[in-house]
Structures are given as structure tokens and as C-alpha cells.
Amino acid sequence: MHLNFGPEERLYLQRAAYGTAALAGAYVILPALLTKGGRGGSGGVEGEGVWVHGLYNPMNDCFINSVVQCLAGLPSLRLYLRKVLETPTQPERRRLTAALLELLTLLNTPLRRRQSSSARSFVTILGDIHNSTISRNQQDAQEFLNLITETLLTEWSAPLLTAPRFYLPSPTARSFTDAPRGLLHWLRSRDSNILFGVKDLSHTCRRCKHTTKTREEAFTQLSLPVPTTYDASLEECLRGVWADEPIEGYSCTHCALLSAYHTLLRTVKGTSTPSAYHTAQLEALREAAGRQMDEFEEEGVREKFRLRRVESVIDRHTRLLRAPGVLVVHLNRSVYLPNGDTARNPCHVSFCEKLSVGGVKYRLRSLITHTGSHSFGHFIAWRRVEGDEKQWWRMSDEDVKRVGWGEKVRERARLEFPHDDGEILRVSSIAVCPIGYCLPFGYVQQRILPSLRYIPFAPDQNEHPAHFQKWGRGQTGL
């Protein structure tokens, strides 16, 4: 049977057919866009530049992926890497710098579809540099970040390391007392190194009031002990880093020198004709006691005079010399029990988007969160969307989500950046690290004030009355 339709009927049927097709297309496409995942290029076209790369996790690589994604959220770091590569040098001396810049550029490339890549080539280069394989058994984001920054420092400062002695006391603190002056000057300079800050350490004995010579250290992150209280703020934890730290049972070299001097002086006074040796020894002890020495010089003095141990209580002083361009803060929640076990400090730590350290203003750019227990779990990276400061990327390996204001992402805990003139993120339900060693905050320096000496930071509650969030009872906190 043939039906004849007029122009109006044909137009009506065409519109109905188009509407049906569009409705069917919406039901087909939208579930793919709204479901959790987006693995390896699945998903529909959302428009130009609305996605960024996720990272595959073939074998417990979430600790690697989270660190790399957070570094990708630091525009100033990419600019600095380009600046380093523009410096004339042999290419093989900047292998990791070039590989990191290539990876960070890839992770910031706008995409029209969900797509994932891999960080394996970068990890392979890092392993080749150290003639080893990156272990996935440890799964420690903090240690992996330390390995990256240490390797970058070695590449960037290689032309300056001409002295035979280069003291490295620990992975997180580098002492440059015996390093070349060029390296010290380079680390102190304001625009020299975006990832490293410099602080000096000294201590004062409460018994003899002697203060040692300051010893400079470079640091890549601030590891903050969490107080054993119900709640605290990040600023309170930071103030603890720069506050004087009392240390009991310290072997004071100056007290030992004074004790040896007065003992020998009593011996000399008890004789009618003191020997030339005793006289010279007295003069040497008096001269040594009057000098200001660092810890390395004190060790040599103790061996020279064979000083007996004199214990005292000292106050350890820490002062900031140069603030880093990118500040990484690590919350140390580990509590060591008498039986040797490790527990988690459950203190609820509140923090705000803006931070002041040593007169330098920082703004939160990225962070890493963790779900699970002390021995296993999963890392998730969060970083700002470039060009839209009100939006953040939630990056769980291949699963990349764009998180807007007030969006609910139900997991275990709750994290909020209270609204402040439309610039602070409001994200809910972020599970966080239960012990804190894998939770760095990536703050990016906004501007440098004339003085880099430490200024105790007191948040202005009147200016930002809602800057701080509190974690509810029974929930995981930062």
C-alpha cells in the first residue's frame, strides 16, 4: 500500500525521525560518558579539549601515576624544565629532565575523547640512570617523588659538583657543607631551582649556652609530624618545623671541652712547675672552646683531645634561607609502638587553599590521596584544570573525571575547600592516606616577598572565616 503525503506531512515525519534518532543517540552515548572508567580511549566525543590523558596501571603503578599526574599540574615546573633544557650541555646529562618534560607535556595535551597513556618509558629511563629497576613492592609515592627530585638535582647541578666531597645525609635532606661554593650559591639563588629550598640548622646547649655554627641543608619537601591531638591545622604543623626542638641526652662538645680544660687547669695549679705540654694543651683547649664549630668540626675535636662524653639538653634551631618554587608537604602520621608495630595518628588536620611559608605565598595546585590500609591500598591524584581554576581533575589511573563545584564523588571520607570568592575548590568524599607518608600537597609559589626569613603564619579568621574544614568523627582525615 502506498501512502501519499503532502509537503507539511513529510516535514512533520522528517522532524519526528530526527527527534527519535537524537533520543536514541542520547541513550547510547550518555551512559558511556557517565559510567566510571574511560579506559583506553572509550567514551564519546565531548568536544575539543575537554579531557586529558589518564595513565595505565598494569602492575601496581598507582603510586607512580599519582606522582606524575600531580607534577603535571604544576605549570611553573614545565616552564623550568624547558629553561633547563635550553642550557647548552650534553643531552645525555639531562635524560630524565627531557623525559619528564615530554611526559608532562603529554599529560596536559587537550583531548576530545577519553584516552590513556603509559609512564613506563619515563620509569625505564629513571631505572637506567640508577642501573636498577623501580620496585613496585614498596608502592610509596613519597619515596618515588624523592627519587625523581634527587635525580633531577644530580642532572641540574652536575657542572657544579667538582669538589671531592659531597655529603648526602638522607634521601629527604641534603647537606652541602662540603659542597663547592658554586653549588651553594646556585641553591640559594631565587630563580635557580624550582623544586629545592635551603634551610640552615644549628643548636644551642642549655648548660654552656654555646651555639654551633649553622649547617645548610637543601630539602625537596617538608615532612611534618602530626600532633597527637584530636585536630590541628596545617599551619600549626608547619610552625612545629621551624620551632626550637629540645633534644635530651646530647653529647655537647663545648661542655666536654670546658670540662677537660678545668680538669687540666686544676692539675696544672697543683704543680709548682707546669710542663710545656700541659701549658700548650690548656691553650689549645681554650682556643677550641672559644671557636664556633659545626657538627663535623666537633667530631674532629673530640677525637683530637679524646674528650669524655658530657650529656646535655640542646635546642635545635631551623631557619629558612630559600623557599622553593614548588613546596611539597608530607604529613607524617606514623606512630611507632613499644612492641615494634606501626600505628596511624588519627589527628584530624585542616588546611586551606592558600599557604604562607617564610614570607612566600603558595596556592594549592595538586594533592595525592590514598585508600586502604598501612600495607596496601590505592593512590588517587587531584590537580587543577588549567584555564579553569574552579575545576579539578580526579585521576585514578585510567579513570579521569572532571570535578566541579559541589560535585559528590562518594568514597570514604569528606574533604571540602570552603568557598571563598569563587576560587577555592569544593570537593566532597575523598578518601585519604591512612598513615600520611604518601600525601604530599603540591603548592606553587605565587610571589616572593623581599625577605625569605621565616615569618610565623597566623591565618586571618576574619578575612577568611571559612577557610578551614574539620573532619567528622569516625572518618579518615588528612
TrEMBL record:
Coiled-coil ranges per UniProt: none
InterPro entries: Papain-like_cys_pep_sf, Peptidase_C19, Peptidase_C19_UCH, USP, USP_CS
GO BP of this protein: protein deubiquitination
GO cellular component, one term: cytosol
Gene Ontology molecular functions: cysteine-type deubiquitinase activity
Domain (USP) ranges: 53-421
PANTHER family linked to this entry: UBIQUITIN CARBOXYL-TERMINAL HYDROLASE, UBIQUITIN CARBOXYL-TERMINAL HYDROLASE 16
Protein name: USP domain-containing protein
Organism: Saitoella complicata (strain BCRC 22490 / CBS 7301 / JCM 7358 / NBRC 10748 / NRRL Y-17804)
